[in-house]
Amino acid sequence: MPVELRKGGLHVSGTPLWLDARRKSELSFVSHAHTDHIARHERVIATAATLRIMEHRLGPLQSKLPVPYHRPFRLGDLDVELMPAGHVLGSAQIRVTRPDGHRIVYTGDIGFEPSSTAEPASMLACDTLVLESTFGMPRFRFPPKERIVDEIEQWARRALSRGVRPILYAYSLGKGQEIIHQLHARGLKVCAHPSIHEVSMLYTELGVKMNVRRFEGTFDEGEVGVFPPFGKSPALKEIYPKTTAVLTGWALEPWAARRYGADIAFPMSDHADFPALMRCARESGAREVITVHGFAKDLAKALNAEGIFARAVTQVVQMELPLAADPGQSELGL
């Protein structure tokens, strides 16, 4: 099989290359710098932006290879290319072409909604697609981001007009910068928790200017607060009156606001929803789709129902299925 699940994460079979390895490895591609995708690898392949944010979070890296988008390079006997993933600034997909010509694409976390702070994702042709499946269930269909941001703006302005402080909960990397950028563009002032402010300053350093004040215990008149959803600042307990909202794709679930300790939840996500994941699989032309994370089995089932051979990375392969589709191909489309 072209990609296998090992104890440390995903591994490209027959090569030293790992994909977002969860523990230290000899060589790993890192798709983006969220903490559940990074580790202190001996050698790292990533975009310059991802490497910069990784070092902010982990300290100096032992050995790193910054790779621009759309610039193929050789890695041993492999041809490798990185393309945008649309998830956060610097996020990337990787396409690995083996000596036999077989093309493997690993999407990492991917998003196709337009973003003001991340490069737009590419649709990539391949033979094996390893597809992130966080929202791989039919019920996850997100409204257009523009409409969601309109609703967030209206919610914030209503609160401010009543003398109530609006506080948004968003992840320190990615969604925090996206909502700061969007609200500033709509004329609102934003004050962010130090962890979000620090990453925002990295965005500015990397070419995406962020206009946001660092929270130092108090708010100025007319400011919207942006804070991480977990480990909330104790200083927020002193802010009264306030209203809170969490920005998450899980907002489509009835329990979302309660889980995050918020008054309301807005379905703003930097992950692809179900229709976008299905379209990505179809347009890739892949003979095999391997789904990972989230609702991997459900997405694989939906793809199989459309005639696309798919399996969750944790599922045992039924050898007769791919052979029935094309007797000229060996198992798994290799």
CATH topology of the largest domain: Metallo-beta-lactamase, Chain A
Given the helix and strand composition, which structural class is it? alpha/beta
CATH architecture verdict of the largest domain: 4-Layer Sandwich
User: What is the general shape?
Assistant: globular
Q: Helical segment tally?
A: 8
Low-pLDDT stretches:
317-334
Biggest sheet architecture? 7 strands, mixed
Strand content range? 15-25%
C-alpha termini separation: 8 Å
The count of β-strands is 19
* Fraction in helix: 10-25%
- One letter per element, helices H and strands E, the order comes to EEEEEHEEEEEEHEHEHEEEHEHEHEH
The overall average pLDDT, rounded, is 93
Domain count: the total is: 2
Determine Rg (CA atoms, Å). Answer: 21 Å
What is the CATH class designation of the largest domain?
Alpha Beta
Spatial sequence of strands, sheet with the most strands: 7-8-9-10-11-18-19
How would you describe what is shown here?
By secondary structure, this protein is of the alpha/beta class. It folds into 2 domains: 3-139 and 271-333, Metallo-beta-lactamase, Chain A, CATH 3.60.15; 145-266, Rossmann fold, CATH 3.40.50. 25% of the residues lie in helices and 23% in strands. It contains 8 helices and 19 strands. It has a 7-stranded mixed β-sheet, with helices on one face. A 6-stranded mixed β-sheet has the order 1-2-3-4-5-6. A hairpin with a 7-residue loop joins strand 8 (78-84) and strand 9 (92-97). The longest helix has 17 residues, at 145-161. The protein is globular. The relative contact order is 0.13.
